[in-house]
Amino acid sequence: MYERRSVADPVVEWPARNSLRRVARALHDAGDAAAVEPQARPVPRSVETERTAATRTGPARMQATTCGHTDDQPPRRSSCPAKPVPAHRWKGRAPSFVCPSPIKVVGAALGRHDADAVVPAMRSADTTPHKRSALLAVGLMLALALSGRAVLAAEPVHLTILAAGTLARPFKQLDALFVQKYPNAVPQPQFGGSVKMVRQITDLHQPADVLAVADYSVIPKYMFAAAGKPGHADWYAGFARNAITFMYTKSSKGAAELTPDNWYKMLARPGVQIGRSNPDTDPSGYQTLQMLQLADHYYKTPDLAAQILANAPPTNMRDTETSLIAALQLGQIDYLAIYRSDALQHHLEYIHLPPEIDLSDPKDAQLYKQGVAHTRNGALAGKPIVYAVTIPTRAPNPDLAAKYVALLLGPDGQRIMQENGFGTLAPPYAVNVAAMPASLKGLVAPWPGP
Question: Is residue 21 scored above 90 in pLDDT?
């Protein structure tokens, strides 16, 4: 059996507890009765038993009580709240209600702790048939509402989030904030190369509620409907900016001599080991190639890209560059092509590349097109690095996903991104705003330019 507790019990089962206390006080005041000491709630009888008792007639019906005592017999329980109806009040007619019926019905409908809060007050207010009718109606409505809220709060909703590897740290902070706002939500993030994450939806048909990538162009290229293939998304919103760079430590080869003017000469020296991500699966991989092509023109050194890539062979590549951070810290590689935000998050050194080549400034979009990366997915011209988010058309939980995206695009989400080294967009830009959930349209502006 369970332990009995009173209204004054400090154990709080859920937030509605305080509301129940207020309702109890209101019910108590309505009965114009003195304060009633909280009592342990008797074991509830079934509603069917109450109905049976209500069909009785004459004195037998009058004397029927929950605890089984009659006018001629004292209560068998000290906690019995029943008060038999005096004979002079019913005068041969069956009374409208058996005294404890509203209390017992509501007590059975509510949970144990909730009933402890409401039932004592109902006892004090339960003085006349009319009041008992009102109490029964109000009490049952309260029971239904509270039981429904309890069920909803108890059912977790899993939110599957596929995101670029470089978003791992800010999204974990975003997830924690989201759970505070929506306690029944259970974010389940997966991080990896953006193209790889997209293909888990398009090729492997993995259900996903939110998709966030490190290159906005990935979404329309792979997710939008095209001739002969179905669509998996029909809008996207840019929410953060970044820059490509090389991260290093003070023990990296050539680090003591490296400057923003000679960095490409240091990285081209024999014996230097450079890590990078796979350009076939991850945006930072092909954005590194685009940046090196732009550096050829900017520094007027035609062999610059080839010389640096000679120190970054396929054996130094991973699906996502963040998986090589430990190798850099352990000295297994000297430099790592990565986003500037990752260098800031890990408090490591990075090369301050000029904005003309680091893909950070949307104003240089035309210039960036001169940097072309050749991958298995075709030739990819350079673009400003803008992270984008969408909700797949077959998302299992689109409403909760919209709330997550709203948090990301709103002030709290933008603050988290900025604290983790990302540039922000004010306001975020979106493509196909009309196709977005209504709750998100007011948070974005149409994407500028073509």
Answer: no
User: How distant, in Å, are the alpha carbons of 81, 203, 204, 391, 407 from that of 234?
Assistant: 63, 17, 19, 9, 20
Report the chain's C-alpha Rg in angstroms.
Answer: 34
- Residue 120: pLDDT band (50, 70, 90) is low
Residue 288 dihedral angles phi and psi, to the nearest 5° = -65, -45
Domains annotated for the chain, with CATH where assigned, are 16-153 (no CATH), 157-239+391-446 (3.40.190.10), 244-381 (3.40.190.10)
Tell the burial category of 199 from Cβ atoms under 10 Å away from its Cβ (0-12, 13-18, 19+). middle
CA–CA separation, 194 and 161 (whole Å) = 12
The residue written with tokens 């590549």 in the block is: 317
The two three-digit tokens of residue 199, written as one number: 């293909």
Determine the Cα–Cα distance for residues 41 and 102; give it in Å rounded to an integer.
14
CB atoms inside a 10 Å sphere around CB 323? 15
Q: Length of the chain, please? A: 450
d(CA 432, CA 259): 43
- Which helix (H) or strand (E) segment holds residue 248: the answer is strand 244-248
Which residue bears the tokens 């409401």? 118
Q: Tell me the two tokens of residue 74.
A: 């004292």
Tokens of 353: 């590349």
pLDDT value for 249: 97
Q: What is the DSSP string of 66-117?
A: SS---TTS--SSTT----PPPHHHHTTSPPSS-TTHHHHHHHHHS-HHHHHH
DSSP state at residue 242? -
**Spatial contact of 28 and 106, defined as CB atoms under 8 Å apart:** no
175: which 2 tokens?
């997830």
Strands 236-241 vs 386-390: parallel, antiparallel or unpaired: antiparallel
- Is residue 339 helix, strand or coil? strand
First-last CA distance in the chain: 70
CA-CA distance, 204 to 90, in Å (whole number)? 74
pLDDT at 273: 98
CA 190/CA 280 separation, integer angstroms: 19
Residues 281-332: pLDDT tens digits? 999 999 999 999 999 999 999 899 999 999 999 999 999 899 999 999 999 9
Angle between helices 16-30 and 112-125 (to 10 degrees): 10
pTM confidence score: 0.66
Q: Tokens 């969408």 correspond to what residue?
A: 390
User: Which residue carries 């904005």 as its tokens?
Assistant: 355
